[in-house]
Structure formats: C-alpha cells, structure tokens
C-alpha cells in the first residue's frame, strides 16, 4: 500500500488501484496519522490537527467514525487504538512525505525532488496542520534553491522559466529572486535582472514593509557594476529567430467569430484577411515568432516579456481603430504567459503553451491578460498599468493562476472555473424597460427583510 500526501491525499494498493478514503476530514485524519506513521498520536492531538483551534463538541466521536471509515478502505488492522491514541501501522517508506524528508536529511537533493509531487494536502483546508504543511513547503523550496543554484552554473537559460514562475508564486523568498537575477545576468539580460530586483523590492516593501536583505542589495550592486564574478553566457538563439529557453507565449483570437461568420459571411471573410495582416505587422514590429495559426487564432513566441506586451498593446490599438466592413466588429482577446520552452522542430508544446492559450480563453474581446510569471518580468510597460485580477482556476489546469490585465478598461468577470455555476436558462434577448417594476422592488427591499420575486 502506498499513501500519498503530496499533491493531494491518495491511497493505492500494491496493484496500483486507488482506495476511497472518504471525505475531506477523513483524509485529514489519515494525513495526521501518516505524518507520524508507526507512532501513537493522542486523540487530543489528532483533534487539534484536523479541526484547529475551534473543534466541535463531538470532535472525538466524529474522529472515531472517521477511523472506522478508514479501516474499511485500508484494512481492519491498519489503524490501531492504544489507550487514548491511534497508530497507523504502515511502513514509513510507503508514505511519500516521509520518503521526501528522509532523502532530504541524507543530502540526496535529486531524490527528494523526485519524491515531491506537489503541495502537501492540496485541495484540502489544512486546519491545524497549516504549520506542518508550510514547513514542508519551506523544506522543498530550500531543496529547489540548491538544485537551481547548481543548474545555473551549467545552463542558466534552461532554468529562468522555472525561477520566474517560482518567484511569482513565492514573492517573499529572497533566495529565489537572487537566483533569478543571477541567471538573467549570466545570459546577457542585465535590464531584466534589474527589473527582477525592483519587483522583489516592491513585494517586500509594499506588502511586508521591509527592504531587501544584504544578499539582494549586494547582488544588485554587482550587476550594476558588471562584477567579473558574474559570468555571462551566450544565449542560445540570440536576439532574433526562434526564441528558446525562457519564452513568453501569446495567443490571440477573435471573440464571437463563429457568430460573425454565420451572420456576415462576406464581410467577415474580408475582416479576417485584414485581421491577419494586422497580427503579422504587430509581430514583425516587436520581434515575435508565429508558431501556430488556425482560423482566427494565432500563437506567437517572444524572447522578452516586454516585447510580448508591446505586441499585444499595439495589436489591440490597431484592431480598435480599424474601419471594419459593415456589420462586423472585430474584438481580440489576448493571453500571455512566460515559461520554459519545450520545442519540437520549429514549433512548441507543453505546459507554458497550454497556460497561455487558456489565459486567452478566459478573457473578453479587447482584453489582454498576463500571468504572474509574465507580470514579474515587466517594468514600465509602455505607460500601461497592470491591474491585478486575483487567482483563477483555468480549464484543464490543475493549479490556479494569478492573472493581471493590461490597461484599466472595465470588462465582465473572467471566463474561468471560478464563475458561479447555475441551472438558469440562457438569456436570449436583452431586457428593456420595466422601470416601474424595478422601482416597486426597490421600495419593497427597503421596507422588508425578505422579498420574494
């Protein structure tokens, strides 16, 4: 039997079959026992770990029912009661968190990282185990920093994408910012390295009220002074041609193109041809590389995040001022994401490309969205502000993404999985008038606690 706590709570048999371990609280009980596998955990301690500081009056009885439920899935002898405590009778090697910690303690960084499958207890309200979860994440980040520090020495280009995403997710960890600044400088991107420092300082000062520590300040001074200890490597691909290493991917498409084709076929055909010309002109003007196209959609790759945003801003402006054929209104939605490029010939594939495409899908016509990793590399974006939109769950992606909007225009809520689900019929026409009814309802709401329509 294998018990996984990293990336979510799972249990599998020796044949690889998943075991049903019950609802969220039941999973937390299993996690609390698994973290101390082979040792007795007092009932009072389990209650604190599962419910935190405000357990229900019936917590101990509820805990007993959870243990009964777990025994059905894991086996009757899997959890043993010893006085006022419970013990999980499973070998420590069968639990991924304990394997991770054992390898980390022995100095096997690669083995520890291989054992890590994601944040502990992902998808659960960790209750009284929040400190334990945070401690495990800190251990993992420490191992990641050691690994990235080694990889920077041999191939700085390949790790910039990973570090950009990590600094966006953990913006207060100065060690990650220092590694990112070093890698950017070593591949000849001094301006981007200094931008990373400014981003780090903004997070620390504005959100924590502290200045960067000596390590970051000294590194900034070294970059400004072109310290000879910061060796600069050659960038594969140069400033032109197919972007490699850390790439900013952009996707754009026309909102409602299916409806346009159905209602204005002739005019839409002309509009699509002109739309393609404008996309190509903006790509050429900002050093982009078109790697995908289909219908009204284009995928573009850029060496720098700032070039990708400049492309998006220029393209939206050209689309907005263009005089389109009668009855056709072309409005683009654009999504940008920076990550490590996975190449196949003259094309790309992989997570970074998929995230960029899903970000574009979440927007509305005229809206440009960027991910946290892209936003972290931007500074003074052509006098255009970035508006933070919070974290959102995107289709087909397991982790949520923090998104920003380029520019301050107002749009409806993003088309993400966070939008409320309902079973109301789709509204087919707009509602006009009814002002008298609205006034009546407003009067009722003011005068009564409950109004039923």
| Count of helix runs | 15
Report strand order across the widest sheet: 7-8-6-9-12-14-13
Give me the count of strands: 14
For the largest beta-sheet, the strand count, sense and barrel status come to: 7 strands, mixed
Unreliable stretches covering 5 or more consecutive residues? 232-240, 426-430
End-to-end distance, in Å?
Answer: 55 Å
Q: Percent range for helical residues?
A: 40-55%
Short description:
With 453 residues, the protein is α+β, with helices and mostly antiparallel strands.
Secondary-structure topology with pairs:
Blueprint lengths: L1 E3 L5 E3 L11 H11 L5 E3 H9 L7 H16 L4 E3 L3 E4 L7 H10 L3 H7 L14 H40 L4 H13 L3 H19 L5 H11 L21 E9 L2 H7 L1 H21 L3 E6 L2 E6 L2 H17 L10 E9 L1 E3 L2 E3 L1 H12 L5 E4 H4 L10 E7 L8 E6 L28 H13 L6
Helix pairs in contact: 1-2, 1-3, 4-5, 5-6, 6-7, 7-8, 7-9, 8-9, 10-11, 11-12
Describe the structure.
By secondary structure, the chain is α+β, with helices and mostly antiparallel strands. It contains 15 helices and 14 strands. It has helices at 24-34, 43-51, 59-74, 96-105, 109-115, 130-169, 174-186, 190-208, 214-224, 257-263, 265-285, 305-321, 351-362, 372-375, 435-447, and strands at 2-4, 10-12, 40-42, 79-81, 85-88, 246-254, 289-294, 297-302, 332-340, 342-344, 347-349, 368-371, 386-392, 401-406. A 7-stranded mixed beta sheet has the order 7-8-6-9-12-14-13, with helices on both faces. Helix 1 (24-34) crosses helix 2 (43-51) and helix 5 packs across helix 6. The longest helix is centred in the first third of the chain and has 40 residues, at 130-169. It is globular, with a radius of gyration of 27 Å.
